[in-house]
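Changelog-adjacent note: as of this version, every example in the card shows the full chain rather than a window. The one below runs 390 residues end to end.
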Amino acid sequence: MSGRGKWLFVFFSFLILQAPIAIGESVVGLGKVISIHDSDIGLETAVSSNDGNFLLTFGVGNSIYKINSTNPENFDEIYFNGSDDLIDADFHPSDKSALIVGENGVVLRFSRSDNNVTDAGGRIFFGQTELMAISWNGDGSWSYIGGQDGWLWRARGTENGGLDVFPIEDRKISDVTGIDCIRERNFCIISTKSDGIGIIDDDHKITWIGGNGYPWKDVVCPKNADNVCIAISDEKNIATIRINIFMVEDSTIEVIQLLELEGLFTDIFYYEGSKSLISLAPFSIIEHDYVEERSYPWLKNSDVSEYNSEISGELVIYSWTVGQGNGWILTSPGNIIEYTPSELREENQFFDEIFAVIIVGLVAAILLTASVYAVPKVKEILHKEREKSQ
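Full-length structure tokens:
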């Protein structure tokens, strides 16, 4: 390649390397605030119904709240006779009911038909074990419940309102921190405090695939994700888990760490498509796209502080979208904050498309430049080879 060709190649390569790969500012703005209660009610988490019409949230004490997803100002408090803290829940695929689990082996059943909560008699099977995670498998035949010290069970309701419960073999000894199941299939992912990641297949057999030593905090399986789930750790690790449904032992786990981020990962929620939202403490959120294999700021703490300094110190426990980039964020004290797309997001989407076109054009230019300056050299070499053969 001639000197001119080399300079063109370097110039185009420099432009490609300078193309932005992440958005540095918040892509949503915050709007109105709805408070569920006058005081801090210590919410632990929330779960949306499968049709997305409402969510249940709960935590410390005996209060459960049913919140309208589109208009959160419409919410109801549901009372039950108990005082145990509630930790996790999941709706049955039929969407008619949900199981809620918590400390001291408590298992509650929420009935959608009458908004009633009843005790499912979990203490008979779980004793005083703190139940930390639950998820229903794809066809709703069984739920999987995980607890402290690595305990794992499969459970389902009975006609008399009780439970059928069976322990899962080959469990580990560290706390189960998260369970989520692929809705299209009877495969579920288990995250643990230090024993790695496991997969439960449709025969209720668990296969441990790696990730040992990481303090995994939770796991989510995005909808229509082609057998992919995402786990997060306390140390800002993100794991992409690809399930091989034919040979589970050949499933893979890829782990990255986002050291440049400030704060600690606290939870992960499905957002849309291949995207999930990961919350951090202090109050901030990043967006992770497992297809593009990148993460970038979604809502920065500095912007939350500018919006409301008190809310900026609260813990994010859940977030949900209502479409077209709009949605809500729920915090532990019981505040529901509206978010809407910022002008920056629209600008970045525009520039992402422009840069994509530019990069494709630059690559084509590099290849064309290389070929233009390489062809005469190739001809010269071929000519010399012919002279030698003659």
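Structural remarks: Helices lie at 3-18, 123-126, 301-307, 343-389.
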